[in-house]
Write a structure and sequence with these properties.
Length: about 450
């Protein structure tokens, strides 16, 4: 089809309201844009000389002169173009259309002004309260896979929606795409018949005739390892699911339709880091893993809690979106840190907010986003960092190192650090988008290694 733009003179409120009703009856968005400009300014512009002809008496029944103009009572957008540059007026229009999902080519699933997650779907894999008893009973009958604490962090990252559009640990095809392209192909609206691509067993012998249409960022492998003993136990069970168990023996999730495949340790490490260094703590973790990986979709039986006094700061991506909406955010900028904040950090966070307001945002909200998953032994512990962040918020803007609690949300981000430099930062930024962030501020040393 062809998009047609028609600029109609519409000075009468009844006519505009009638057009609005026709749009609403058909479920089509309608925007009334009020160019709120003084008549004297219009006369001064007068590119066609129309106002001069009115003044001379040549033109009669001219809007705003001798014919009425009924200003909109509740326009969606008001542009005082005599106070704005052309680019600024256009930016306001485009921002409103983007905020409402008109220009993104997908249904809007997040609050106005906040971006959709990758895959255009909010992911939350917790079972409902009504389902929980039956799921727990089922899990008791399944073969058990014991996770490391790092893998528990990744399970939380997946289940709470931080790795959208993933709904489980990576299958082999998804892992290889991630390693070699830092991205994955998806088809959320089934345009090419590939809607179930990420949740289907990898089949290298049969590729689809039409590839998925959308590529989304995915720069880090998110995997679950197992030993040959665990693999044999799963295969002997004749079950199409496994229970995921913590180091303490607590069953926290069910993984469906398990796909067990070779743990390509050397390929994973070299693609992530470009080098094999057994002194690197995350590389050491990869090589300590079993010889196999298990892919499959997960169901979390309950919230993952650590009972360390910090669970109040652990929000899911869905809960964080609600927080931003409650604060009336028209954009969100995330500040990541795995250190205590200092006056320099506070300056960056404040100035970033000022920059966004200068671009026309009315209520940018800061997301103070401490890294909450596993970190190496010489990093500052999470509880120390969070307690310091609490003091920074309590200090408010009267202190040079303080932040405004009215425009700031603190929420722990659950993924572990892998110390992979810019490759990891891509995931950090993409993940914050899942909870509504459009801007991301990160330190100069994302690798974090000495």
């Amino acid at each position: 089809g062809v998009i047609t733009l028609v600029g109609l003179i519409s000075p009468y409120r009844a006519d505009r309201d009638a057009v609005r009703r026709r749009h609403e009856e058909q479920g089509i968005p309608f925007y009334e844009v009020f160019l709120d400009v003084p008549v004297e300014e219009l006369k001064a512009r007068d590119p066609k000389g129309q106002y001069a002809r009115v003044e001379s008496g040549e033109l009669k029944h001219f809007t705003c002169i001798d014919d009425p103009y009924e200003a909109p009572l509740q326009p969606e957008i008001t542009l005082r173009t005599h106070e704005l540059k052309i680019e600024e007026s256009a930016e306001i229009l485009f921002r409103q259309l983007e905020r409402d999902g008109i220009l993104v080519g997908a249904p809007k699933v997040t609050p106005p002004g906040l971006p959709n997650p990758d895959g255009d779907e909010i992911v939350d894999l917790h079972v409902s309260d009504a389902e929980r008893p039956a799921k727990i009973a089922e899990a008791a009958t399944l073969p058990k896979v014991r996770m490391t604490d790092l893998e528990l962090n990744w399970l939380q990252t997946i289940g709470e929606g931080w790795a959208s559009p993933l709904k489980g640990f990576m299958r082999e095809g998804t892992l290889l795409e991630t390693l070699h392209f830092n991205s994955i192909l998806v088809d959320p609206f089934n345009l090419t018949g590939n809607v179930d691509r990420l949740t289907s067993t990898t089949d290298f012998a049969n590729f689809p005739e039409h590839p998925p249409p959308t590529r989304v960022s995915m720069s880090l492998p998110i995997t679950l390892s197992c030993t040959s003993y665990t693999r044999e136990m799963i295969e002997r069970s004749n079950k199409n699911a496994v229970a995921l168990v913590t180091q303490m023996g607590e069953t926290v999730a069910i993984l469906r339709n398990p796909e067990i495949y070779e743990n390509r340790k050397e390929e994973i490490v070299t693609r992530m880091y470009g080098v094999i260094d057994m002194g690197h703590p995350y590389i050491e973790h990869i090589y300590k893993g079993g010889d196999y990986l298990i892919g499959g979709e997960v169901e979390l039986l309950d919230r993952i809690k650590y009972n360390d006094g910090l669970d109040q700061w652990r929000l899911t991506a869905t809960e964080l979106l609600a927080e931003f909406q409650a604060k009336g955010a028209d954009t969100v900028y995330a500040f990541q840190t795995r250190n205590p904040t200092h006056a320099g950090h506070a300056y960056l966070m404040r100035s970033a907010g000022e920059d966004l307001r200068s671009k026309g945002f009315q209520n940018p909200v800061l997301w103070l986003s401490p890294l909450g998953g596993w970190t190496k032994s010489d990093d500052v512990p999470l509880d120390v960092r969070v307690k310091q962040h609490e003091e920074v918020l309590a200090a408010g803007t009267t202190h040079p190192g303080g932040l405004d609690p009215a425009t700031t949300v603190m929420a722990i981000w659950p993924a572990p650090m892998v110390y992979a430099g810019p490759t990891e930062v891509q995931f950090h930024a993409k993940s914050r988008r899942s909870a509504g962030a459009s801007y991301f501020v990160v330190g100069r040393d994302p690798a974090g290694m000495k």
